[in-house]
Amino acid sequence: MILINENKAIDIVKEKIRAWRDIEFKKNDLAIQNALVDGSDTTELIIRRDYLRDLPSQCDGKTIEELKSLMDETLV
Q1: What DSSP string runs through 38-52?
Q2: How many domains would you assign to the chain?
Q3: Contact 52, 69 (CB under 8 A)
Q4: Which of 8, 30, 22, 16 is nearest to 52 (CA)?
Q5: pLDDT of res. 1
Q6: Structural domain of residue 51, as residue ranges?
Q7: Which of 41, 43, 56, 57 has the highest local Cβ count within 10 Å?
């Protein structure tokens, strides 16, 4: 029987999300800057930034299956 350390799994998923998130932050920040220059609405971009910021904390207390699902939904 294989035992999986859930705390370690959570840490691994958080690190993967953080690596992916860094790239997404850069894209989103550029979109925000462009929107500000153009005078466009930044509401959706700010919501996305907040979502990206909070994403690693969504891993806490998740089961392995929930972590897999979160990864599938997020890293698309």
Answers
A1: HT---HHHHHHHHHH
A2: 1
A3: no
A4: 22
A5: 85
A6: 9-74
A7: 56
| Helix-helix angle 6-38:64-74, to 10 degrees | 20
Q: Assess contact for 24 and 49: CB atoms under 8 A.
A: no
Burial (0-12, 13-18, 19+ Cβ within 10 Å), 12 = middle
Tokens of 52: 């990206």
How many Å apart are CA 42 and CA 76, to the nearest integer? 23
Taking the chain (76 residues) in runs of 10, the rounded mean pLDDT of each run is 90 94 96 96 96 94 92 82
Query: Which amino acid is present at 25?
Result: F
Q: Which amino acid does the sequence have at 76?
A: V
Assess if residue 3 is contained within a domain.
Answer: no
| 35: in domain | yes
Distance, CA of 25 to CA of 29 (rounded, Å): 6
